[in-house]
Amino acid sequence: MDTKLLFLAGFAAAILPAQNQPVLGEEAVKVSDSIWAIMGFPNVAIIIGNRATLVVDTGLGPPNGATIARVVAKLAPSSQKLFLTTTHFHPEHAAGEVGFPRDTILIRNSVQQQEMELHGKEMVDLFASRSAKQKELLANATLRTPDITFASEAKIDLGGVMARLLWFGGAHTKGDELTFVEPDRTLITGDVVQNKVVPNIFRDGGTPSSWLTVLDKVIALNALHVLPDHSAPGDGSMVAVEKKFIGDLRNSALELKRKGVSADDAGKQLGGEFKTRYPDWPNMNVAGFVRSIYAE
Ligand SMILES: [Zn+2]
Ligand SMILES: [Zn+2]
Questions:
Q1: Ligand of minimum distance to the alpha carbon of 42
Q2: What Å distances lie between residue 36 and 70, 111, 275, 278, 285, CA to CA?
Q3: Which ligand sits closest to the CA of 20?
Q4: Which of 33, 65, 86, 277 could connect to 94 by a Cys-Cys bridge, CB 3.0–4.6 Å?
């Protein structure tokens, strides 16, 4: 019996409430042989090899970054090199970097870095304006230049564990990054593949069709485990479900568009229809994504 799968099924219910509040805890759960995760806003992956550790995402602001660093110190030998990468430029994913040790090697794809330079500070200010707590968490957030940037793929040999950092094109944002870890065959997907969560394109990030193109490349990785950033982990079938959902919604919305139905009306109608078609999805607010389909 695969106890790992049983465990994954169990922790969805227990840990998901933490995903809406901005302070990360110090509990880490095992996702696959070499990967741990702090489940929260967002889920943060800690990938541990014999020589080095890679963290994916920083939490919202330096205090969360420092929490992650403490968890890493408990899980991995302190002599190890520490790498840090980010799934996209939004503050809960990238604005906690200052909380990590000073010799942490920061690496991200260059498209994401361009978005960070254009809009990173603006997003920090926006998130800080949302609550007193978020303002406090982001007070000392500075966005430093990465030590390494890459175009479409960077491989980090962690010692017995290989992390492939991948940029496949725009989806939720332009610079969405995925991390594929071997031999685990675990994929850390950011917002590109979620578990029963309606996708969302941030401003001019990607388009519904670029998102589908990205998913074709993700499917080819043939992941066994998937760790998304704002929902529960699952198996590799999550990738195909994401593609089916976006494809279905796109076809249905384009049909209504051809009939002259407005984007707003299509969003309302399809919200109801997709609740029936995907009954186990907790929330079916498709209005935003339908607008993206209409706009393309
Ligand atoms: Zn985001
Ligand atoms: Zn996010």
A1: 2
A2: 13, 27, 33, 30, 31
A3: 2
A4: 86
